[in-house]
């Protein structure tokens, strides 16, 4: 077993564990903003680690281009989706929902 195989296994297992924790967080947290945090932070790192494991399994420039494109698309779309969810949640609340007296 080579060092690349060990690195692939570590990246793949860590990425899968992070994706699992993101799913558990989505189920356990109660508020929209908590769920949004749980769904974006570990999920994106998990996806990037899986992509890294895929590249380490076949380290060539032919694989690097598409994997980098997928990784960049994930980073951008997760950020935009999190922003839109937070904005929709903020706009959907009434003035008294934030705990302030409104004065």
TrEMBL record:
InterPro entries found in the cross-reference section: PhaG_MnhG_YufB (IPR005133)
Identification of the protein by name: Sodium:proton antiporter
Similarity section: Belongs to the CPA3 antiporters (TC 2.A.63) subunit G family.
Record GO terms (molecular function): sodium:proton antiporter activity
PANTHER family: ANTIPORTER SUBUNIT MNHG2-RELATED (PTHR34703:SF1)
Transmembrane segments: 6-26, 63-86
Keywords carried by this UniProt record: Membrane, Transmembrane, Transmembrane helix
Pfam families: PhaG_MnhG_YufB
Superkingdom of source: Bacteria
Glycosyltransferase as UniProt keyword: no
Coiled-coil regions listed in the entry: none
């Amino acid at each position: 077993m080579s060092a690349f195989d060990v690195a692939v296994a570590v990246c793949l297992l860590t990425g899968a564990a992070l994706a699992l924790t993101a799913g558990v967080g989505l189920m356990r947290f109660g508020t929209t903003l908590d769920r949004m945090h749980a769904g974006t932070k570990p999920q994106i790192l998990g996806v990037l680690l899986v992509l890294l494991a895929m590249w380490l399994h076949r380290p060539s420039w032919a694989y690097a281009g598409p994997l980098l494109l997928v990784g960049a698309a994930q980073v951008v779309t997760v950020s935009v989706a999190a922003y839109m969810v937070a904005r929709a949640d903020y706009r959907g609340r009434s003035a008294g929902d934030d705990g302030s007296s409104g004065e």
